[in-house]
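TA notes. Do not distribute before section.
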Amino acid sequence: MSTPPLRFNRVYIEITDRCPLACSFCPGTGPRNALMSPALFARIAAQCAAFTDQVCLHVLGEPLVHPQFAELLDICAHNGLRVVLTTNGALLDAAGDALGHPALRQINISMQAALELPQDRQAAYWPALSRYLLRAEAERPDLYINLRLWTQRTRGDAANDVEQRALTALHTHADLEIPPTAAAQGFRSRRLRGRLYFHRDTQFTWPADACGPARTRGFCHALSTHFAVLSDGTVVPCCLDHLGLLPLGNAAQMPLAEILQGPRAVQMRQGFSRGALVESLCQRCTYAHRFRQRAVGT
């Protein structure tokens, strides 16, 4: 019996690991300090079209620093790929018309990054965000926009202060009337208007930094719902492997189809399917704890 073709919900393509900010929740500019060339991106995107309908232009780094960002969106459109963009929002003005590109399906804007900026930079950030939101609503009402904070399960006054500062800024600068439910605790996502959402997420420890006890039982969605390609072409199983500690191959040197059917990828995928963590990085990863119930049921 032939093996069914692999399909993924999304593929993460890191077009750069450079970032102009230094946020507390992110490692910052990565070890590659690279920009993926349009030629390599085109090669990868064409192959990704066989595996998915959606790409996320992010693993580490700020995608909007890429000088050929608009060209990369054109390549996605040419290959029928919908794009999810994750950005810190600091370069919205500089990105210009590219943020209205028809290939874009969803934009995630990390407001947590803004709240760590000096006051003078925050003073410029919120009006720029407001201008973009108003323009997007007028020109791309079909575009989903998530305004994100990493406070979903944080407790105490510090979390409340972070959320209140963000909501106040949105109200003041973006003329957003915040529904009472959006300011309440205990939700993950709330619609503000149209396809604009206020989204809470949970802070996590990057697997490379995890130092807890190892476990051999568990589950992860890596290699079943997604995989990632780093800016130097390294293919990794997980969108959190920003250091490339689990290299499966390099897309600049061999086809994705071969990489994804290679022995390491197959061993990991089969392990997850039976609730086994075969790689030491996965055994220490605390992010995968949220999938514990799935592991028990396998």
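Switch to the second chain here.
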Amino acid sequence: MPLDGVVSMYVAAELAGRLNGGRVDKIGQPRPFALLISLRNQGRTHRLYLDANPQQPQIGLLSGSLPNPERAPRFTMILRKHLLGAELAGVECFDYERVFSFRFLAKNEMGDLVSLTLIAELMGRHSNIVLVNKDLRIIDAVRHIDSRVNRVRETLPAHPYIAPPRQDKLTPPEMLAALQSGTDPFGTSPRTIHEQIVRTTSGISPFLAREAEHLANLVDRQIAGLSPAERQLALAMYETFLIRICNGEPSPTVYYAPGTTKPVDFHVFSLAYLKDKKTVDDLFLAMEQVAVQADADTTFAKHKAALQKQLRSRIAHADKRITIHAADLAEGDRAEQLKMSADLIYAYLHRIEPGTRDIQLPDFTTGEPVTVTLDSKLTPAKNAERYYRRYRKSKIKREVASKFLMKDRSLRDYLASLETALEHASEPADLEALGDELASAKRREPGRHASADADERPGRPASKKRRAMARKKKEPKQKANKPGDVRPGYRAFLSSSGFTILIGRNNLQNDRLTLRDAAKEDLWLHVHQAPGAHVIVKARLEDLPDGDVLEAAGLAAWFSSLNKGAESAVDVDYCPAGRVRKGSGQRPGQVIYEGYYQVRVAPQNPALLRPGDAP
């Protein structure tokens, strides 16, 4: 977000025009480094928002309020003590830096009028909000910085306030004056034009500096490689660019991600080199739109990362179970060898001397000598019985391990399908649906109840009491949806011919879409033998043009684990939804289908299709 020095100067001027003379009505701290200050001015309430978050510092006027913590932080209490009822006397931003000064006139405990200044330094990882007195001595700050962090600028109560060091650059008015006097700021720099502008002029971000390159039609050209005519043109356009910055009328603009309506940037000027944009009447409205979207993106990324961490943990657990049960199965495969040893001992009891440790006996089938190890403390007959006991135990272990290995692999495949769905999650509704399914799947996972624990420890008998207690144990209750709580719907698109295409966001939706909501004649599609979403086209196969079938197949390929980009080719199966059914014991999203066709397609980017209406 380009909160550069140019925007900062216009923001300070706009805030001064709206807030000067207003009185502080409320002070809250909705986020760890953020303040929301309500001021009453000329019968209107203005909400000043300051956020010193190192990742995303913000300033602006909000159209609505934000929830505050139940217990006010220490910094909030100090601000309330000193600033509630105070009058805002001035707002300033100096030298095109992202440092804002809010000067208040307040009454102290003795009733005397004193001057206090709230300074908002919104400079990335160095951001802070500091309250100082008239002698520039710090009263408190939202972030305490001691000498271990910054030996030059300690920001602690009772310490003198030291302003951020000034950059070794000219301000836009100073640079404009230098250009008009004949100074060439470009020199023989090997940098591009916009890089040199950012390096020599304060308050100008790369986002804004690219406009000067665009005006001169010298985008990404190195200064050292410019011809004399091109250099003169670049200097002339730079001068025009600076005149606009210093004297031009602001035109607050929101900039969107290419081809979308998602706000990603704002500026006080409309920049010609960017096409996806919209000019708005209020600078703070533009800033709020971008900030709300940035907050939503941050929340989405954190939620997605949390689900990915949870899913990776579950997959690792499933892989560990597979390893354990595969080892048990391999050990169980020795059962027949144990039985053969027991049979050989019984068959040749007369040849085995007491106290023998190892003996070679002829194999019943081949006649080849087989080495049998004996316990010298036991009689030959007892050794045979010991081998038979080990045989029975190994046989049971093999049967049990085989059963649970099948379940483990089924669970691993199911979790892989969730992983694929999570990779393709692109909006909050996707994460909400997947979060619901993960919670539901956790309740059904093996090993969560006593009966399952008993069954999954081969060779250990489960007591009747433990089994009875497990049967009485109730499943955890699902939380009922609150009134008005709407579950996310299917993804919906329109084919080129106008047919509705529905896609499940998770396995629970896949089951509901395919087995309940789809008509038997609707076309069903799924990637061949790999995790992926279920796709339904609300039409019969005979009524669909070939192009629409390919589009739907491309979507099935896109929302699958086989999506490796537009250049990849994926096999997709399709048939009427009536030929798809649920097998006994299958997990959500897993189905059986027959009488299907297959087509090989490249993944279809859903952004290229028109959105549809989900039922």
